[in-house]
Amino acid sequence: MESSAKAITKENILNAYHFRHATKQFDASRIISEEDFEFILETGRLSPSSIGLEPWKFLIVQNPDFRKRLSEVSSGAQKQLAKASHFIVILARSDASYNSPYAEYMLKEIKGMPDDVFELTREAYGKFQKNQRMLENPRTLFDWASKQTYIALGNMMTAAALIGIDSCPIEGFIYEDVHRILEEEGLLEDGVWDVSVMAAFGYRAEDPPREKSRQSLDKITQWID
Q: Given Cys at both, which of 74, 92, 104, 126 links 196, Cβ 3.0 to 4.6 Å?
């Protein structure tokens, strides 16, 4: 029999998933505390990424004028940009190839690999990226990096729900226009970064209109014994 502590933990986690919904209307009068938002960001920082390259950057957009500019080209975020406590634009790296200076920095400086281990690791990562057809063009490499940002996003939304904070993932924006706005502000660092996805965090202004609806587990699973 599992311990009561473990059962309570599982219950808390499932309750958080039932609580979380894609919040459209935020209460502008309620602001997430600095401590709580740092906690949310920390869960993003600690998220896993393919070959450990952490190809993400979180732009926390609090400036009202900047939010207004984004709302004009982000149909899926107009309500959230106006009232959410915190708004994040998540960037993905465009240069996360196995033989890039960035990969060398991550493996040597962040992970502390000695030169001989680094060379073997880089060779293995090169085979992996080639086998997965990531290096065919800049777009396929960026798309791979962008996938990693969704891992961090999911973790941040779950962490927020666990402490009673609402969120909404957002893909409803005009890529070219958001890219241009960020580029004009120098936030893409001459092409090192590009926009992946957005997310709003705050407190709901009203309860969701209905209970969460999902397919049953047997509809989405298949066991291969």
A: 92
